[in-house]
Amino acid sequence: MNMYDIILKKRQGQTLDREEIDYFVTGFTQGDIPDYQASAFMMALFFQKMNKEETVYLTEAMMNSGDILDLSEIKGIKVDKHSTGGVGDTTTLVLGPMVAAAGAPVAKMSGRGLGHTGGTIDKLESFPGFSVEMTKEEFIQHVNDIQLAVSAQTGDLAPADKKLYALRDVTATVDNMSLIAGSIMSKKLAAGADAIVLDVKTGSGAFMKELDDSFALAKTMVDIGNGMGRDTIAVISNMDQPLGRAVGNSLEVKEAIETLQGKGPEDLYELCLSLGTQMLILAKIAQDEGEARERLQEVIHNGLALKKFKEFITRQGGNSQLVDNPQLLPTAKNIIELKATQNGYVQHIEADEVGMSALELGAGRQTKESILDLSVGIELIKKVGDEIQIGETIAKIHSNEEKKAQKAMERLLKAYIFSQEKIAPPRLIYGIVT
Ligand code: URA
Ligand code: CA
């Protein structure tokens, strides 16, 4: 077997067998197959696509490329949640404490990664002292004690994906259904969850811009998960505009706290309820959607979810007093307001442009070495469907540097599209795939 023949076979649109896919994943991970062959192979896959069996082989090979975490010492059914990625997606910070407070163990392995804003770990580091460094034993202990822990990746999970994702990112081969499904599911399966809830985003700020493609991606991942013996469900949710109002690390932490207090943005809260409902059902904490939803609403209203969040921050070394005093979280020096110059309605907010605007401010990483400014970001005061009047504030830019703020402002202006006609607020959940 050699890589040339495998590339050619795929280029010609033929189906690869398990041995050929294993050969590529193993060889590439070990450094025996060079980047130029892997790049050509990714492009061949992009155009010729993989069928269902090939996608399963790819996922399994990537899952088996590194450690497979055994979390069986954690009591209860561990349900992991994963989003396919969006702008200003603060759900993990809200969902973790909600679901834990409702009684299901949440053992979250998270990353920093590249992106418009930092990952969950970066956001949590808005709390001075907060640490995600822990041994596997400590991780298990935390979850058994308080039902919730967020750890940096322990061990070497799916190294094939790490390497392949970096290559796809610079060769315009990210947005292929099989490659995304394999990438996400190999990591989830290696991370030891018993069950998985996927938040598959659809719209301008998502990898999958079309609804049909989002459903197909969801179905592919759900079938892979179920096929590997893990109960898997996907929720298809809107990423045509950013979720919630805050895009930026400490701003999103503040938003998460408000949501846990029951006064956060409607869409963020609703998405957390929808995802949390599926998590509680898979964890066998609730029998049906009605019961699950009620439990989640209850832990918001009686303050238990917020209490859980504080307990979790304290347990991982952070100062949880900041939860009650969020003004002490990292705060930017300047707030610049973007004002409406016409009357009308917000028709659309291009999620990617808002993300790029936050990135300009320093909220996210452009390269692995970038240092984040946790205090900066964007607050969307007006969202799709809202009425606006001349002079009203549409959005706020939180910044520390004049020049960056100007660039961010230019991008943010491009992100907003207005209309004279009344617009219905967009749908948030498009469906559930089982
Ligand atoms: N998220 C991932 O982890 N991998 C992809 O390929 C796309 C989104
Ligand atoms: Ca948000």
From TrEMBL:
Listed Pfam families: Glycos_trans_3N (PF02885), Glycos_transf_3 (PF00591), PYNP_C (PF07831)
Keyword Transmembrane helix: no
Domain Pyrimidine nucleoside phosphorylase C-terminal: 345-419
PROSITE patterns referenced in this protein's UniProt entry, alphabetically: THYMID_PHOSPHORYLASE
Domain of life: Bacteria
GO cellular component labels: cytosol
Keywords: Glycosyltransferase, Transferase
GO biological process terms held by the UniProt record: pyrimidine nucleobase metabolic process; pyrimidine nucleoside metabolic process
A GO MF term: 1,4-alpha-oligoglucan phosphorylase activity
Keyword Transferase part of the UniProt annotation: yes
Catalytic activity: 2'-deoxyuridine + phosphate = 2-deoxy-alpha-D-ribose 1-phosphate + uracil; uridine + phosphate = alpha-D-ribose 1-phosphate + uracil; thymidine + phosphate = 2-deoxy-alpha-D-ribose 1-phosphate + thymine
InterPro entries: Glycosyl_Trfase_fam3 (IPR000312), Glycosyl_Trfase_fam3_N_dom (IPR017459), Glycosyl_Trfase_fam3_N_dom_sf (IPR036320), Nuc_phospho_transferase (IPR035902), PYNP-like_C_sf (IPR036566), PYNP_C (IPR013102), Pyrmidine_PPas_bac/euk (IPR018090), Pyrmidine_PPase_CS (IPR017872)
EC number(s) reported in the record: 2.4.2.2
NCBIfam families, alphabetized: PRK05820.1, PRK06078.1, Y_phosphoryl
The family this protein is said to belong to: Belongs to the thymidine/pyrimidine-nucleoside phosphorylase family.
Biological function: Catalyzes phosphorolysis of the pyrimidine nucleosides uridine, thymidine and 2'-deoxyuridine with the formation of the corresponding pyrimidine base and ribose-1-phosphate.
Subunit field text: Homodimer.
Record's protein name: Pyrimidine-nucleoside phosphorylase
